[in-house]
Design the sequence.
């Protein structure tokens, strides 16, 4: 009986070190690309700012020099983050791809453009909800009691608090399909925990909308629809994965 192979001392540590080095390099590449998009956004802040304020019938106010810098960094940072999402997803895919089969690599690679599209759709949806529903509702509460004046940082800070949660929640279908393709998530798990997911989504809707039942329902329904869509996509990916596994076993 042959002796079991001895593990080379430090082999595990070398592998872990190699992964950490790869992860560091990917983070550096992502940071550099983020910085490049940030510079592009910083240069075009005026045009982007004008796009947002065209939908409101008032002039925003600045009460300190720091607010001017804040708006530059906020708008440039949002643009850079949105534009860097495909890079982030690709770096994540490239990091885990050695553990995937050739077909899993091809399928999961297709999620990269989808992540950007859904993030932008989430931002657009959140912005429309804010401009068409939330903002008019809040202004209607004034009823000519107060002189309305919004500062730049308060207005955009509130706007980002409304729109960004939608942008991240709209990523749920892509995240679901990606985790299912890796064998981490199953449709049974999502169905079993549906009521908890609904509760979380309703809480999110309550937190990001004013205390108006109609607005909260308007916000909660699309989020629930997104979760149900994610379940169906999870089932689709899971069935294909199971069929491929059965075909492989039959061969």
Sequence:
């Amino acid at each position: 009986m042959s002796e079991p192979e001895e593990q080379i001392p430090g082999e595990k540590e070398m592998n872990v070190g190699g992964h950490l080095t790869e992860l560091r390099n990917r983070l550096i590449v992502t940071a550099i690309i983020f910085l490049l998009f940030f510079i592009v956004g910083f240069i075009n802040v005026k045009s982007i700012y004008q796009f947002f304020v065209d939908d409101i019938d008032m002039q925003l106010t600045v009460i300190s020099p720091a607010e001017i810098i804040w708006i530059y960094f906020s708008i440039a940072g949002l643009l850079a983050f949105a534009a860097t999402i495909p890079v982030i997803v690709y770096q994540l895919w490239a990091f885990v791809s050695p553990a995937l089969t050739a077909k899993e690599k091809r399928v999961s690679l297709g999620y990269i453009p989808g992540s950007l599209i859904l993030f932008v759709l989430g931002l657009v949806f959140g912005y429309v909800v804010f401009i068409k529903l939330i903002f008019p509702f809040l202004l209607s509460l004034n009823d000519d009691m107060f002189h309305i004046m919004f500062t730049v940082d308060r207005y955009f800070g509130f706007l980002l608090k409304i729109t960004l949660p939608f942008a991240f929640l709209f990523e749920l279908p892509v995240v679901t399909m990606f985790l299912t393709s890796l064998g981490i998530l199953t449709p049974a798990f999502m169905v079993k925990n549906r009521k908890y997911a609904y509760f979380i989504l309703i809480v999110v809707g309550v937190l990001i909308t004013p205390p108006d039942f109609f607005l909260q329902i308007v916000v909660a329904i699309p989020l629930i629809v997104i979760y149900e869509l994610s379940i169906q996509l999870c089932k689709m990916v899971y069935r294909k994965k199971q069929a491929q596994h059965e075909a492989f076993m039959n061969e």
Notes: The two ends are 33 Å apart (CA to CA).
